[in-house]
Design goal:
Length: 126
């Protein structure tokens, strides 16, 4: 059985958030391990952030860059992180993705500023 911690080791993870009508919206993202859960990082204005505020329940699957999923689906609960926790999440992602991660995060900070992105922690549901 796949766990969220297992998915955190994948290059990309498809995170499905849910609209108010229950329709799932999958998005491929980078993810880094964080204890029994994982962290992701996204623009603060992203629709997935709004959907998580309305419904923190998510599902996750391993995927490729284009979002083509494989393996087992895992249920999780998402939490939008504070500014300090978001900085910690950026550090975890920089560590996992190396030079590419550092460059992408730096470019985002230059373009959006520190407050333009948020970290999201996903832990096992229930």
């Amino acid at each position: 059985m796949t766990s969220i911690a297992d998915l955190a080791t994948e290059q990309y993870v498809s995170v499905t958030t849910f609209r108010k009508d229950g329709t799932g919206v999958p998005t491929p993202v980078w993810a880094a391990p964080d204890g029994a859960g994982l962290v992701i990082w996204t623009p603060a204005s992203a629709w997935k952030v709004r959907r998580i505020r309305n419904n923190p329940e998510v599902t996750l699957k391993a995927c490729d860059l284009r979002g083509n999923t494989r393996g087992e689906e895992v249920k999780g609960r998402a939490e939008i992180l504070s500014a300090e926790e978001t900085e910690r999440a950026r550090g975890l992602l920089r560590r996992k993705y190396g030079l590419q991660g550092r460059l992408v995060i730096l470019g985002s900070k230059i373009r959006r500023g520190s407050a333009g992105t948020v970290g999201i922690r996903i832990t096992p549901a229930g």
